[in-house]
Each structure stands twice: as C-alpha cells, then as structure tokens.
Corticotropin-releasing factor-binding protein
Amino acid sequence: MRVMERTFREQLFFLVLCLSVLKGDSRYIENNEISKDELYSFFNSELKREIPEELMYRRPLRCLDMVAVEGQFTFTAEHPQLSCAAFLMAEPTEVITVDYDSVDIDCRAGDFITVFDGWVMKGEKFPSSQDHPLPLYERYVDYCDSGSLRRSVRSSQNVAMVFFRIHSAGSSFTLTVRKHINPFPCNVISQSPEGSYTMVIPQQHRNCSFSIIYPVAIDISEFSLGHYNDFPKRSMPGCAESGDFVQLLGGNGIDTSKLLPITDLCISFTGPTHMKIGCDNTVVRMVSSGKFVNRVSFSYRLLDSQELQTIKLNNVEDFCFNT
C-alpha cells in the first residue's frame, strides 16, 4: 500500500475541516487513502444537524471517519478492512463515552476494536504522555481484551479515537457515542480556527493544553497565577522553576512535548498580548503545581494567506516553515 504524499501541513488542515489521511501506531492503524469528495462529505450538513434528545441519530460508520455528533454508528465489513479509524470530537467543555452495543467480530482471527483516549497522527499522540493523567498503555482499551467486562469507555478530554480491523466480510459492530459536560476541561483540540477560551486549573497538580490546529493570531487577554497576582506583566526565561506558568508552543505535529516553545509566561497580567504564529499547531499550555487556582483567557483567529506569507518572509523564528 503506497504512502500518501500529502504534506503534514495539509493533513492537519484536512483533519479539522473534514478528515485527513492519517497514520497512527502500527499496531492499530496503517496508511489509508480516501478521495477528496469523501473527505468533504464527513462534515456535511446532515452530519452536523441538531437531533432532538428523544431521537437517536443513526448512520453507518466508514473505515475512515470523523464523528462530531452523538448517535449510534454501525460498521459492516463488505470486504476485509485492515486499517480503519474513526476520530471522535466534542465541544471543548465535553468528554466522550463510547458504548459497545453489539459486536460480531472474530478476535481469534486478528479482528479488534480499540478505543484510544485521545488522538493519534503519524505516530504522535494528543494529549502527550506528559500531559495525560493515565499511562499510555491504559489509554488503549481493546474490546477483544476486555470484552463484556468493559462495555463503555470514557475519554479524558474532548477527543477520542476508535481503531478497528476486520478480516471477514459480514462482520460488524455498533457503537453509541455520547457527550458529557466536563466542569474543568483539560487538554482540548479546537473544532474551529477562531474563537475564545478560558482555561482554569483549580488547585490541581496537572498540565493542560489547548491545541489549535491552524496558523493563528492569538491574543492573551488575561493571565492569573495565584502566587504572582500582584506582579506586573512580564515574561521570564526561568518560568519552569516557578512551578506554575503558561507556555505558548508552536510546531507541525500534535504532540505538545515535541513542539517548540515560543514564549513562557509566569507573571500575572491583564492583557492583551498579541502574537501571530504561522505553525500548523499553536498550543496554549498551562503547567500547575496544584497550590493555586490558575487561569488564562485568550482569543484566536485564522491567519490569512498574506499574513502567512509575511511571517514566512520576515520572521526570524520561522521554525514552523523549516520543519
């Protein structure tokens, strides 16, 4: 099976606008190809429509799919499908549950259905292992390993994935996807190239990130760390030593631990601070010691082609264009 020749930049854009061609961990998914028409069909009006609560939205699941609504999704193999993945996405303030309603696959023949707590792209994972509360092996839940003992899997953030491999025509399974309110969201992939968000960590020792998979202009309007509330606005090179700080990261992957730091902030201020970042992925990441209530508010919008060209030509730190 030939490897797709799309650049990583194109893949990232297609992922949120519709669906990109993706490659995950070799145990779970291989290279796949899909036509451009099929890509755009994933986010058509029928898929995004509002459905009354008393009615369950139902449709077939594709081998490569994006699911952004609640409902029941059934996959039936017409022929062997050895490398499939469905990307699940909710609002930033929601988490996702995946329920196995009915499963007719042959685990002994090598079939599997695996829910991953997060997203995988080209071997990179979101959230990164540094930021996720669970060890990596616990983020993979394989139906063939757990069976009837675990009929429901819940994500830790607003994205999740279902990997599956089916060897025999006629084998099938049905999943129900539901969304639930998350009072303190941590680790978010934005559905949109523009918007605003406030990240709050309420005295918890954890790292949280907000990932925008677009080149954007970002404005940080408010930034408050409990132990520095009375200090003026300032960026410091030694922020990591404080234990509580905010990072602005950029790069062309989804693993925040592999992105490059643009700036660190560890002194509270009321903004705005404006910055244009021409990377495929722009991340606001907050590191919290758990001793204080920390918060950061920001807004963002997509850079137009002229702004991107200016950044590419004039910005000295143009690492996003060189990687």
About this structure: The helical segments are 8-17, 36-41, 45-48, 136-139, 143-146, 305-314, 319-322. The longest helix spans residues 8-17. Confidence is low (pLDDT under 50) at residues 1-6, 16-51, 229-237.
